[in-house]
Write a structure and sequence with these properties.
6% strand; Thioredoxin-like_sf; 407 residues; Globin-like_sf; Glutathione S-transferase N-terminal domain-containing protein; Glutathione_S-Trfase_N
Amino acid sequence: MSIQNTLSSWDELLEIARNHTSARRVKRPGQSPSTAPISSSLHKLPPNTEPPVLLYRDTNSWCPFCERVWFALEEKEIPFATEFIDLSNKPKWYTDLVPTTLVPAAKIEGNLVYESKDILLALEARFPSPALLPEDPEENAVARQLVEAAETNGFRNLAYKFLREAPIDVDELAKLQAEFEAKLDELEQALAKYPGPYFVGTFSLVDIMYSPHLDRLAANLPVYRGYHLKGNPRFPRINAWFDALNQRPAYHRVKSDNITNNLLLRRRWGVEPIANPLPLDAADSEKIQYRAEAAERLSDNREVAIADIIKNSGVQAIAADGDFTTVKEAVDFHLRQLADYLIHGNGETLAGGRTGGKNSTVDPIFAAVGAIAFAYLRNRICAPRDMSAGAATAFRAAIDKLLASVY
């Protein structure tokens, strides 16, 4: 029997995966990205009704300011549609529409608003329930001051200077770290002023303002500066705040994962790592809802994934006489193997040497294509552009297991 016939078909894998996850995305044939997230509240709209909000955001889902708006839309359960803007080639209609030419921007019931803070406040004014600002007038005023301070207190600029532009001189670097820690101390003190884990008495726009940046810093700093936010005893309240965010479903829909954040920093800013990547979250990698979501995404978007691997991973060099038929079959098989392992997750699909290794009877070229495809795909996927952060973690962990088991 051909090894290609020992796995389930793509349609079977897709059906099984969808039985274990409600995650779905809209396909965008011939466009980038190839799929778009679906608002979790879209089902609340009557049939043939346009969502009240149109969000303009970056194609790669890297922008922390876009993430703020998406987070608020999900928390407030506002149905919305997404229009992606290629930041490297912004369309003229967008630069004509938005004076800053930046993302995010949003049309709220037809009215254009730009700048993430202004969009958040406009959403709160138009859709006051559920509230993301406190009802108590005094606490409301404090929250609004903290929202403004998140933009003006210099924390973000100093943090990214420490991360991206840190001087080589040891004394200068120590001075910059001390200044950054002083800003973190200010956040720690702000979190201490109200009971509970948030900046004010309840989860609010203040938490949304800080969430994308602190998330990125928590992922990047250990790898690129050897500095840890999470688990740092100097900042117990910031760590309690991270724990509280982690309990919010909307946060998991919009957040990125550590590997995406670290790859972005290296690719976009040219920062070189000085430490090993953070380990994958073992709990997320084993959760069936995340494994099934990853399998669903891969199965439903397989044509795009296969075409991307063949075009950009380097497997073309393996093709004999320019015939990509065998290469494509090998890529297809290995991706089906990955989807199958994600769904079943018990190691049974990893018979020793079945797709590679010195004792294998499998064509070594076939196995080499699989290794290249897996390695490429591991660092190609982007959360949450392609799937949620939890699913991306499960996806990468499964690839690691496959590579370690058979190559």
